[in-house]
Specification:
Layout (H helix, E strand, L loop, with lengths): L2 E3 L1 H9 L4 H7 L2 E4 H9 L4 H13 L1 E4 L13 H13 L3 E3 L3 H9 L4 E2 L1 H10 L6 H10 L14
Parallel strand pairs: 1-2, 1-4, 2-3, 4-5
Amino acid sequence: MNVISNSSPLVALSSIDQLKILQQMFGIITIPEAVFQETVVQNSYQPQRNRIQTAIDTFITVLPPTVHQHFSRVLGAGEQGVLNLAMELQPDIVLLDDKKARNEAHALGIISVFTSDVLKRAVATGLLSSYQETMEDLAAHQIYLPEGGGAVIS
C-alpha cells in the first residue's frame, strides 16, 4: 500500500514506541522533507526523535516534493509537503489528523486517514491489544488524537 504520512502519526506512535505498527500495516511509508524536519531535526524530545530516525533508517522514505501547489487553506509546512507529495505520487492514503489539511485533501480528491483509524485497524488485525489502552497511553504522554471517521483501511 502506498502511504504518505504527516508528523502527527509519527509523533503519536513514537511516543508510545509503536511506530512498528505503520511498517506492519503498510510496509514502506513516505514522508516529505518538511515532516522529517519537524519530527527529527527540530524535535527536542530525544527518545521520540531517535525512534523516528530509526524508523527512517528502516522503513520510512524521505522525499522532497517536486510539485508545489498553492492551497486554498493556510497549512503548515508538513501538511503542504504531504499534499504536494500526494499529488505527485498518488498514494492509496495519506495519514493526516489536522482538520484544515484533511479538508484540503478531500477537496483535492486525496483519501486521508486519522491516526486513530490506524490504531483501530491495528486492534482489529491483532497488532495492538486494546484501542482504549492505547489512547490512554497516548494521553499519558499528553497526546490527544481526533477520533476517526476517516477512510476505511483495507
